[in-house]
Amino acid sequence: MTQEITFSGDPSRNESVFGREVKACRLEGTAAIVTGASRGIGLAIAERLVAEGARVCITARKIGPLEDAAAGFPEGTVITVAGNSDDPDHRREVLDTVARKFDRLDILVNNAGINPVYGPLMDLDLEAARKIINVNVLASLAWVQDVYRHEGLGFASRFGSVINISSVTGQTPSPGIGMYGISKAAIGHLTRTLAVELGPRIRVNAVAPAVVKTRFARALYEGKEAEVSSKYPLGRLGKPDDIASLVAFLASSDASWITGQVINLDGGLLSAGGSA
Ligand SMILES: NC(=O)c1ccc[n+]([C@@H]2O[C@H](COP(=O)([O-])OP(=O)(O)OC[C@H]3O[C@@H](n4cnc5c(N)ncnc54)[C@H](OP(=O)(O)O)[C@@H]3O)[C@@H](O)[C@H]2O)c1
After folding, report:
1. What is the distance in A from the centroid of ligand 1 to the CA of 224?
2. What would the pLDDT profile of 164-217 be if each residue is shown by its tens digit?
3. Which of 118, 148, 180, 232 is catalytic?
4. Is 118 a catalytic residue?
């Protein structure tokens, strides 16, 4: 588990301050899907959404680690469906299960992402490039399409929020991971385009982290963390919880006038002229 959380789930703790309601549980009564959530950023997001009152469906390809992750949640707050996020049958199974168990869907977090290759674009195997685009970009769009069209879920008929996980590599080139950055740049424009198409009912935003300490990014910092961190004005690399707190905000009604935004979450790295 990535953090210690107090699970309250008690909306009666809401308070009125200066005549405004301050919600103890901003996401009380909502339901969410977080893809790629057996560890790392996705798991931290799922934990945070549950801590704020949501019920969550988490996915990942490997069933064992997914079940292990789910075991850390309070009873009744999480369901799991294993599968590959770019597989239409998997998406169908997830949505049917969410409809059956939660009977609603308010929040979709497109977190699953891959980067299977390292090296210059001139050496890139185009099959690998297609795989990156399929999982990182097309599957993110397909999740939104499938949710929107699903006959048993009310995403298209009630207010909803989509949050895509992009990356600072989509803002400025990072040597060796060019195609990954291209896919994350596409996520940014997908986010803006969907926001225009799906408003006013559905808000679509993205979060673009710099290096966050997870298994995925290990090669970027292991054995050189002090040196890498020194390029960040805030003096440290990201933690999964840094991403989770922004995602929870974007999912909540506190962000009800925010759509089509790609928010950099980078400890100041880009402002300092750095890249991941
Ligand atoms: N860590 C960073 O520095 C960083 C920075 C910017 C953006 N991001 C983005 O943040 C997201 C999460 O990254 P992370 O660092 O948390 O990675 P991570 O620790 O490696 O976790 C990835 C999660 O996604 C699952 N997954 C991978 N491929 C999948 C697929 N095709 N379908 C379904 N699930 C899949 C993995 O489980 P299985 O292996 O069992 O499928 C795992 O649960 C990614 O989109 C990544 O691009 C990360």
Report:
1. 22
2. 999 999 999 999 999 999 999 999 999 999 999 999 999 999 999 999 999 999
3. 180
4. no
> What's the pLDDT tens digit per position in 43-78?
999 999 999 999 999 999 999 999 999 999 999 999
Helices (H), 74-205: 88-101, 126-133, 139-149, 178-198
Query: What is the 112 CA–ligand 1 centroid distance (Å)?
Result: 5
| DSSP string of 41-88, one letter each residue | HHHHHHHHHHHTT-EEEEEES-HHHHHHHHTTSPTTSEEEEES-TT-H
Assign residue 3 a region (left: φ > 0; alpha: ψ between -120 and 50; beta: otherwise): beta
Closest CA to 163 of 88, 239, 98, 251: 251
CA dist list (Å): 16 to 12, 20, 28, 249: 11, 5, 17, 19
Walk me through the domains of the chain, giving residue ranges and CATH numbers. Answer: 25-212+237-265 (3.40.50.720)
In this structure, the residues whose C-beta lies within 6 A of any atom of ligand 1 are 35-42, 59-62, 65, 84-86, 111-114, 135, 165, 167, 209, 211-212, 214-217
The CA 186 to ligand 1 mean position distance, Å, reads: 17
Using the atom order of ligand 1, give the atom closest to the CA of residue 136: 45
CA of 152 to the centre of ligand 1 (A): 28
What is the CB neighbour count within 10 angstroms for residue 206?
28
Q: What is the pLDDT of residue 175?
A: 93
For ligand 1, atom 46: residue with the closest CA: 113
Q: How confident is the model at residue 158 (pLDDT cuts 50, 70, 90)?
A: low
Kindly state the greatest CA–CA separation across the chain.
Answer: 60
